[in-house]
Model the fold of this input.
Amino acid sequence: MATLREIAKRAGVTTMTVSNVLNGRYSATRSDAARRARKIRRIADQLGYRPNAAARATRSGQFGSVAIVVPANSVGAGMMFPAELLGAISDTASRQNLNITIADLWLDRLADDADYAPRLLRELSVDAVLAHWYHGFGAQAKQCIEAAGLPTIWMNELGEHDCVYPDDESAGHLACSRLIELGHRRISYLSFLTDKHYSVGHRGSGVQRALREAGLATTDVRAPIEPISEATPCIDEVRHWLAGDDRPTAVVAYGRSEVVCLMRAALDLRLRIPQDISLIQIEQSEMTNVTADLDTVVTPWGDVGRAAMAMLLQKLEGPTAAPMPARAVPFYASWAGSAGPANGQVDESA
Done:
């Protein structure tokens, strides 16, 4: 592992200068000082330098480590954690010389052991916590994590304080507005999930807001598919819905499961996309194995991760400060051609 002395020799500066730069104590107010700091950080990255966590903990009383809490249960640790979110967190932490520790929180143990989560975080020797909401992460899990008394930022969690979440209401609004611009008037929102997570209702509310702003009817916007506890195929119900005389000309799909099911039902009914029915998905990436050519309102996981880390760094500077206002992060659009004009005439030259 590279040492401060090796970095100093390569950069042509003193070890004290290297230490100040890598520990955030270097005042780079002039352009030459800023260039020197960038050079030192670049050399440190090239040499694979990592700070001595034990030495830093002894000096500062901090471990230089942040825990990402990953919920797990008796089925396993199959929790959805977007790669873009993890990458943004890791990159930001690396620039701050912070380590990331993955903490598997077994939800089955919370009811029987109130000290389980605080003890887990103490044993991991971390200074702060990032927690990402997922199915099963209820009020009890949140209380147990916060009982550890560490600075904590919640991601994908709707609240007033100390959380960063994708603005799902704006996502539904963006998708529906696009379809209205294309001339559609019969637009539906398709979701197989219950309202267990705020995103299900918020995306639907966004669709309704866009319809309302355009002076269109907002009743019966959600597809008449019985919500279930998990997103599993409802192919028969979707096929029956699309075969009706009053089927929509366009659909905003909550996510990938709804898209796959709708596309299969449309194929069975010989309905073409977008000529017969337009489709926009709300998804974590523009590209997936089965939905690569669909218009997508993309979940901004990278921006969520960077915003969460920025808030957490502020908390680490003043851990006793008042709670921080929540931040909603907007989605962005990637149009690929699965939504066409309402009359079914697709401009092939577009």
